[in-house]
Amino acid sequence: MPTTAGTTYYVLVTGFSTASGAYTLNRTCAPPANDICTGAVSINCGQTINGSTTGANTDAVASCGTSLNTAPGLWYQFTGDGSGVTMSLCGSAYDTKIGVFTGTCGALVCVTGNDDFCGLQSQVTFGTTGGATYYILVTGFGSASGAF
Asked: How far is CA 61 from CA 71, 84, 90, 147, in A?
């Protein structure tokens, strides 16, 4: 069942008729669509996205300025226009890392990456090529995950 962010859901656990006893209740969450590169969410110039890598999976990507394959991550994308771009995770609630790639999700090419630009958070600045697709991986140090 899809849920709505910010909504509190209550679950009633009860027995049939007058039955009572011990029970086990598990909650499993589906990772967000942008948990994988092919589901990357578009980000526009000047746009701020608030999110969380909690519940995402670890990505099997090569190092790009820093190792990026140890913690849960989420993917974003945009098309370059030849201008300079800064992608910042400064102010995030956990120890972040960021990786920027071109190419395709099946054959990513490292552009730049960072760990610890602003305290324990990450930031990169790079020039873009007009028409090129850029894939951004937001992830964490070690196995860290959290809000960004």
From this structure: 11, 24, 23, 21
